[in-house]
Amino acid sequence: MTATGGPKPKAVQVADALREDIKRMKPGDKLPSQRELIDRFGFASQTIQNGLAALRAEGLIVSAGNLGNFVSDGASPSSDVRDDIKEIRSQIQALTERVAALEERSAPGGA
């Protein structure tokens, strides 16, 4: 099966937009809070978290817990089982959103 250029999953949209923001930021700069990102994108908090998880997995940002997310200095991300689990959950959520969109389009009367 190949992609048909349909709409990107919401978490991917968040990650893509934040990647562009990060290009204009310096290492150590703080990203907007999760609440600010929810307001900006209009997506659920889990979707925002999934977008951020993708950026963490790419090593573009680091999480400082309750302090927020910061632009990485480019050092390789530390491997932690909890981070791996979060990334897997993020990928599952993105796939779930894609399947739901495909099912909606293929349903009788769907656009």
From TrEMBL:
Superkingdom per UniProt: Bacteria
Coiled-coil segments: 78-105
PROSITE patterns reported in the protein's UniProt record: HTH_GNTR
Keyword Cytoplasm on entry: no
HTH gntR-type domain residues: 8-74
Residues in the signal sequence: none
GO terms, biological process: negative regulation of DNA-templated transcription
Assigned keywords, A-Z: Coiled coil, DNA-binding, Transcription, Transcription regulation
InterPro entries: Bact_HTH_transcr_reg, Tscrpt_reg_HTH_GntR, WH-like_DNA-bd_sf, WH_DNA-bd_sf
One Pfam assignment: GntR
A molecular function GO annotation: DNA binding
Protein name: DNA-binding GntR family transcriptional regulator
